[in-house]
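Q: I'm teaching a short session on how sequence maps to structure, and I want students to see two examples side by side rather than one. Could you give me a first protein with its sequence written out and its structure tokens following it? Keep the formatting plain so it prints cleanly on a handout.
A: Of course. Example one:
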Amino acid sequence: MANIFDVAKYILKSKGRMSTWKLQKLCYYSQAWELAWTEAPLFEEDFQAWANGPVCPELFRVHQGKFIIDAEDIPYGSLDNLTREQKEDIDIVLKDYGDMEPYDLRELSHSEEPWKNARGSLPDGAKCQTVIKKADMGEYYGSL
């Protein structure tokens, strides 16, 4: 099975340098739509409902302290771990979300049920490490 680093590296190879904020959201939407389309995760790592949207802590630890990142900044991961079908699915996500600004992706994720459910009644800006459930992601995006 692929991991978050395989997906992040694929996204960065496809789209080029980007903000870490944007990379996190594109990885999140890749996972969300894969769950909706195939009912199987693209990778096992989870996203948490951080104040600025979904964040995968494992990926965050790799890019922590950086604002802009490119594929060479991801020391792990291989495009060979993704199937042709998974790459095609990620390409669809990149076509739909890849040109959006990081702030717009943040706002979009904040308006959607999986992130809101994980946050519960926390006020804006409050720290949160609650996992966004894969089942919630698959169900929500599968219903769109």
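Q: Perfect. Now a second example for contrast.
A: Example two:
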Amino acid sequence: MKRIILVYGLIAGAITGGMLMISMPLHEKGILNMDSGMVLGYTTMVIALSLVFVGVKNYRDNHRSGSISFLTGLKIGLLITLVASVLYALSWEIAYNTIAGDFMQQMNEKSIEKMKLKGVPEVELQAARIEMEEFNALYRNPLIRFVMTLMEILPVGLLISLVSASLLRNPKFLPAHSPAP
């Protein structure tokens, strides 16, 4: 079980972390904006965390004779998610401290621009700026930033783990194929 968790978790984490490292320079060059970057990020998370399903199925078929309980499937899925999430958060820490540049400032400026386009009054814009500065001060703390980054990916993995465990507890769902005689 440990091997499956580590292999699938590390692969999923490498995919999400790798896409992060690829997308940050694209963001810096203006090729990706905040919205498309967010869509790309969450799409990558879903694709990478589909390995939760593969890992649970692998364990069910190769180590449990084609049968797995919901709780065992969920446990494996969550542990794969945890490994992938930690790798993703570590990747963000590396990116944030090396290639992200003034990411937070750019994100704040884009948010203010959107608010201006919506016609938000100046008083509310000023309040938003103050709130953003308070958040930025909090975000400078590496531990808080790490936990916040985990909170981006963990809910996605939780959902995929729940779905995977629910589907794969049924031994008739995508049964393991035995070789033809």
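Q: What should students look for in example two?
A: Point them to this: The chain has a mean pLDDT of 93. Also worth mentioning: The CA atoms of residues 12 and 47 lie 8 Å apart.
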